[in-house]
Amino acid sequence: MLEDIGALFHGFAVVLQPFNLILMLVGILLGVIIGVLPGLGGANGVAILLPLTFTMPPTSAIIMLSCIYWGALFGGAITSILFNIPGEPWSVATTFDGHPMAQKGQADQALTAAFTSSFVGAFVAVVMITFLAPLWQASRCALARPSFSPSSSSPSPASSAWAAARRSRSSPR
Asked: pTM of this prediction?
């Protein structure tokens, strides 16, 4: 447990390096630009901007790609609030409250609420994944399918068929 916390703090140290912080900012800005374009979402934005990361260190590339994704999710809220045009399916609910607020002159409050909820949702998701992944991994290993060795007393039908096909190919004709 103590080494897990040490690894977590090492991850924070890597993320908070100046180069990675700049990549976060650039990734979020590019993601917002992608998210504002109707029909392009987080996954498409990551796929389109993937070549930008080819020359980066792997950790920095993953940081930038994840920021592009989260920025694109927020960018979809901008068009939903200001123009009542949801670019992605998950932006539809934003049009119900956001666009009427924008029509009343409260667009800044609606955008702030969308940004805050996007940030809080992403933060809660990352924290949950960080702390629940080891538990899920332990339970997944407990439920793993048993493996059978070739010397098992009861081979599976698939392995028996494979062995029979192998013997028939290797026999001389």
From this structure: 0.71
